[in-house]
Structures are given as structure tokens and as C-alpha cells.
Amino acid sequence: MAITGVHTLLYSSEPEALRAVLRDVFGWKHVDDGQGWLIFELPPSEMGVHPAEGPGYEAGGAGHQISLMCDDIESEVAALRSKGVAIDGDPVDEGWGITTTMELPGGVQMMLYQPRHNTPLA
């Protein structure tokens, strides 16, 4: 037996609008599982494990987080803004990466960051 993938979920009060951003703005491949239920292929991913304490955990109040990574955050923020994606302020250097937050349809907040940490991704 082997784990063959990771399935993530985003809950949104505007699921059709959020699906449109993932499909049309991010350009992610997808399949329609019927009745508009789009399942998206994600870019390569990695997973870190953080302690459930400290400022990162306490600020979010959540036990799990999905973040999107990019190679050039300034260019990516400009491109996303030009396509109507709301970005909270300018990117901030956190040391381990440069971050900002995207406001996606239905109240979904997602971190966008340019990592500076070691990554197993090619």
C-alpha cells in the first residue's frame, strides 16, 4: 500500500467564483466531476510540520494551512492584481520567505510566497 497523492479542499461562500479564479486566472488543469464540481490538478507540492504554538499558529488560529509558492513574488503579485485578484498590501520579507495574502472569492485567504528555505522541489 502507498500514499499516492494529497487532496485539499477550500470552503467558499462563492464556490463558482473561486473555481473560476483557479481555472481562468491560475490556469490550473481540471476535470469536471459533474454538475460543476471541478477537481484541479495542483502544481508540485511540499509539506512542512510546524509546532502548534508560537506567532504563526496563534495568528492564524488554524491547524492547517495551504500556501501557494512562486519564484518571483513581485511579478506574480503584479500579474494576479492585473487579473483582479485582491492582494493584501505589499510582500513582506519573513526571512524564510517573502509573503503576502491573497483574498479569493468567498472569503478564502491564502498565502502566496517566494520561499527562501530549502525545498525538495526541482
Main sheet specs: 4 strands, mixed
Number of helices: 3
Outline, from the CA principal axes? globular
Q: How many strands in all?
A: 6
Query: Which structural class best describes the helix and strand composition?
Result: alpha+beta
Helix content: 10-25%
Write down the secondary-structure element order: HEEHEHEEE
Strand content: 25-35%
Main sheet strand line-up: 3-6-5-4
CATH architecture of one domain: Roll
In brief, what are we looking at here?
The chain has helices at 15-25, 55-60, 73-82, and strands spanning 30-32, 38-40, 67-69, 86-93, 97-104, 108-115.
Please characterize this protein's 3D structure.
The protein is of the alpha+beta class and 122 residues long. The strands form two sheets. It has a four-stranded mixed beta sheet, covered by helices on one side. The chain has a two-stranded antiparallel sheet with strand order 1-2. It has a domain of 82 residues: 2,3-Dihydroxybiphenyl 1,2-Dioxygenase, domain 1 (Roll), CATH 3.10.180.10. 9% of the residues are buried. β4 and β5 form a beta hairpin. The radius of gyration is 15 Å and the shape is globular.
Salient structural properties:
6 strands; 2,3-Dihydroxybiphenyl 1,2-Dioxygenase, domain 1; four-stranded mixed β-sheet; two-stranded antiparallel sheet; 122 residues; alpha+beta; single chain; globular; 27% strand; 3 helices
Describe the protein's topology.
Elements: H1 15-25, E1 30-32, E2 38-40, H2 55-60, E3 67-69, H3 73-82, E4 86-93, E5 97-104, E6 108-115
Parallel strand pairs: 3-6
Antiparallel strand pairs: 1-2, 4-5, 5-6
